[in-house]
Amino acid sequence: MTRELRDLHARLAEAERAAKAALELRDVETAEAIMADVRNLRKQIADLEAEVAKEKQKPLTGYRIAGGADFGDGARVAVLAPQDKLTAWVRATGRTEIGASLDEQRHAFGQLVRAMAVGDWRTIPRDVRAALGTTPDSAGGFTVPDELAAFVLDLARANAVAIQAGVRTVPMESKTLTIPSLEADPTGGWKAENEAIGEDSTTAFGARVLTAKTWMVLVRMSLELLEDSTLAGQAVENAIAAAAGLALDKAILLGSGAGEEPLGVASTPGVLEVSLGANGGAITSYAPFSEAVQKIAENNGQAVAAILHPRDMGAIDRLTDTTGQPLTPPVSWQNLRKLTTSALPTNLTVGTATNASLALVGDFSNVFLGLRLPVTIQASYEAGDAWARGQVLIRARFRADVAVGRPTHIVKVTGIVPGV
């Protein structure tokens, strides 16, 4: 239900009570006047409900609404491809309480951060203020309306290389969500009439449980900057989105699964591997990546993208043949979408090497990022040394997890070290 509908229902309930009270006092004239208002409010509610229902059936301009899949208890849930917007899902499912324009909403999160810090709420759209409620929580923070939270998470997703590689997003409506996984494809066979067919015992279906885990970021800014610059809030918004994007990359690609850290692709059991040796090795040809593509094809998959550290992508760019000319890449490498991220480490220990890295190759649409709304932001003048320094500490918090649906469609190339 939208904020406007809730207001109309509240006014209707109040008018009905007033009409009842007037009738009890035998003030028929007043009761009839109030009942005219009641009928008008009922009509407004019916019209607005019809309009909301009609809007839900229309495509959202500027957005793409994702398809879905049957996960968990059989309920159909949204699965967002990289180009799909979490904001579109929020709107399509009726979770928005904001009537501001899309442009106003795009700037509202940053404005909200600044308003919390300096107490200047004049730039915050009325609907956004209403959706926040009248008071902050016990920790001095606000739960951001879902649509604003979705804008920021969409910015974070856009900053995450893993999402660009094809990782799909699943909005979580509870703490946990079960994702089916397939460790090996089933094998069928031809049979004669009335002949029993044997069961394929090699097929292994499993389940990956997304469990919303908490991520936080802390941003420090001077009070003077927040007071003097109306763009300071937008700068904080961009900083939070960039930090969240990098955190998503690290969690999706490398998460250890220990404690509250999600289990990422590289650590997921069943993910395939191409090793450059017990002590690592330099990239001298495209062979490791050709082998990775082959391994995925042997498991009935198709490699779509490769994610590397910029150091290793540079080494590949500089490959030459025996005449010093750039080395011609094979079709398998040419067909891959190449992406780089500094989220991948260059200090892994592999045997005697302490400067190793890894790359990931595969079909990343089989990797799922669970995101659970809402996003909470808090501002404090007193935390740490903020009071003494005249600063404000701004903390943002959201919850997420990662699951790999087809581990055999991902290959990690390990032990990559710099060439001499």
Please describe the topology of this protein.
Elements: H1 3-24, H2 28-57, E1 68-70, E2 76-78, H3 86-92, H4 102-118, H5 126-132, E3 141-144, H6 146-159, H7 161-164, E4 168-172, E5 176-184, E6 204-211, E7 213-222, H8 223-228, H9 232-254, E8 272-275, H10 287-298, E9 305-308, H11 310-317, H12 331-334, E10 337-340, E11 348-350, E12 353-362, E13 367-380, H13 386-389, E14 391-404, E15 410-416
Give a verbal description of the structure.
The protein is of the alpha+beta class and 420 residues long. Helix content is 38%, strand content 24%. It is built from 13 helices and 15 strands. The protein has helices at residues 3-24, 28-57, 86-92, 102-118, 126-132, 146-159, 161-164, 223-228, 232-254, 287-298, 310-317, 331-334, 386-389; strands at 68-70, 76-78, 141-144, 168-172, 176-184, 204-211, 213-222, 272-275, 305-308, 337-340, 348-350, 353-362, 367-380, 391-404, 410-416. α1 (3-24) packs antiparallel against α2 and α4 crosses α9.
What's the average pLDDT? 82
**Percent of residues in beta strands?**
15-25%
CATH class category of the largest domain: Alpha Beta
CATH topology of the largest domain: Major capsid protein gp5 fold
Number of strands: 15
Q: Helix coverage percent of residues?
A: 25-40%
